[in-house]
Amino acid sequence: MEEMDDIVREYPLTIYVNEKEFATIVCSPEDIEEMVIGFLGSEGMIRMYEQDVKKIMVDYEKGVAYVKLTKEFVESRDFYSKRFIGSCCGKSRQSFYFKNDVKTAKTSMTKMTIKAEQCISLMKQVQEQSDVFLATGGVHNAAIATQNGILVTRADIGRHNALDKLYGYCLLHRLPVRDKILLFSGRISSEVLLKAAKMGVGIMLSKSAPTELALAMADELNITTVGFIRQDRMNVYTHGKRIEK
């Protein structure tokens, strides 16, 4: 018996900044502008959308995004490099660790807390709201939330892209995240933890496992990390003072 099945789509996008090629990303072809803005924010090239971005244009047929910044883009080996970023979660972006990581990663100063039962409830909400994942099983999900509910969710074939889409949404809509919660469906790797730190969140929840390096970074950056949130159980790894029983 033959049946039709829903399949996720891979979409290669090349980003030009001030007419210079910066990176090619393989992603899901939704929320592209948000992803581009979030990616550039994560790379330390922009901090505030209104002040730093003159224009952004996406040519969907050619798979190209053009970004005009208010400041001159000077390519530097010390801070940036042209690179190809695939969607495969098995390929860690080793070239990601540059000096701009130190410059842009924020130490969390939030004093917010959340109950353990709220962590479990929020993770269930993220899974239930992910229509693409439920249909295909082929994307990662990420969300920004308060203790009481989900504010915005994004999905992508690449875990880092899903986070960039969230970050871009926050920059475009001037959504402060210091006292918000970041939820994520994938593994908390060091690169994922760095993106959380660059966004400025203080609590990160995941249904998957963390890595040793990610936890070391989270400890240093004062970020609460919680993993393996499944059914009615979870593991609290760093700065557990923010998780109430």
Word description of this protein:
- By secondary structure, the chain is of the alpha/beta class.
- Helices cover 30% and strands 29% of the residues.
- It is built from eight helices and 13 strands.
- The protein has helices at residues 32-42, 49-52, 99-104, 116-129, 131-136, 159-172, 190-199, 212-220, and strands spanning 11-17, 20-27, 53-59, 64-69, 83-85, 114-115, 140-146, 149-156, 181-184, 203-206, 224-230, 233-238, 243-244.
- The protein has a six-stranded mixed β-sheet, with helices on both faces. Strands 3-4-1-2-5 form a five-stranded mixed β-sheet. Strands 6-13 form a two-stranded parallel sheet.
Secondary structure: elements and pairs:
Blueprint: E1 11-17, E2 20-27, H1 32-42, H2 49-52, E3 53-59, E4 64-69, E5 83-85, H3 99-104, E6 114-115, H4 116-129, H5 131-136, E7 140-146, E8 149-156, H6 159-172, E9 181-184, H7 190-199, E10 203-206, H8 212-220, E11 224-230, E12 233-238, E13 243-244
Parallel strand pairs: 1-4, 2-5, 6-13, 9-10, 10-11
Antiparallel strand pairs: 1-2, 3-4, 7-8, 7-9, 11-12
Helix pairs in contact: 1-6, 6-7, 7-8
